Amino acid sequence: MSLGMLTLSQCSRDISEVINRVRGAFGGIPMKAVSDLPEIKAAEGTINRASRLVIRGVEGLDVWRGALIVYESTWMSALKDLRASGKWAA
């Protein structure tokens, strides 16, 4: 990957790494338990928009990295809330 450029292949690898970390954190808790939350849907939209903008060269890699951080943080926050609700134990 050249400086400031994001390829579709790199985009896929980056998001796969994040999803794998999130899956690992969820363990036996199904991600479906929170996947329909508005904040999860919004984070997914952010990832989609950021990837398109960076691949087209409209935005820089900092936008992509920021979107990945928001995406992962949103899932982890939803997991924390789910555990706190008592529906799922850690």
Amount of beta strand:
under 5%
Main sheet characteristics: none
Number of helices: 3
Mean pLDDT over all positions: 91
Tell me the series of helices and strands, N- to C-terminal.
HHH
Low-confidence stretches: none
Terminal-residue CA separation: 38 Å
What is the number of independent domains?
1
Shape estimate: elongated
| Broad structural category | mainly alpha
User: Radius of gyration, rounded?
Assistant: 14 Å
Helix content: 55-70%
Please tally the β strands and state the result. 0
What can you tell me about this protein's structure?
The protein has 90 residues and is an all-alpha fold. It has one domain (1-12, 30-82). Helix content is 68%, strand content 0%. It has helices at 8-26, 38-55, 61-84. Helix 1 runs parallel beside helix 3 (61-84) and helix 2 runs antiparallel to helix 3. It is elongated. The termini are far apart. The model has no long low-confidence stretch (mean pLDDT 91).
Give the secondary structure arrangement, pairings included.
Elements: H1 8-26, H2 38-55, H3 61-84
What characteristics describe this protein?
0% strand, 68% helix, 90 residues, mainly alpha
What is this structure, in a nutshell?
By secondary structure, the protein is an all-alpha fold. The protein is 68% helix and 0% strand.
